TrEMBL record:
A Pfam family annotated for this UniProt entry: FeoA
Database matches in InterPro entries: Fe-transptr_FeoA-like (IPR007167), FeoA_core_dom (IPR038157), Transcriptional_repressor_C (IPR008988)
Domain Ferrous iron transporter FeoA-like: residue ranges: 7-83
Key words, A-Z: Iron
Cleaved signal peptide residues: none
Protein name: Ferrous iron transport protein A
Entry-linked SMART domains: FeoA (SM00899)
Species this chain originates from: Roseateles asaccharophilus
Amino acid sequence: MSEPLPSSLAAAPAGMALTVQQVSAPAYAPEWATWLSDLGFLPGEAVRVLRRGSLSDANLVVRVGQSTFALRHAEAECIAVKPSNV
């Protein structure tokens, strides 16, 4: 049985090649959308989770383009992704 497709970067397994579909922000932090876009999380950009903490809502280490960032789980939830080969 195949793995379910991730809907957000926070749900993506480590190592999967992904493409950013869109970036949104929660109502309590609308500035996150601009901040994440400024970091390079733009529609069509390649992204990959490199590492994640051991807890389900732990921080993630992600690569977007040629840059590597640590994101909180809540921030990664704002980034909609799809597998690169879909």
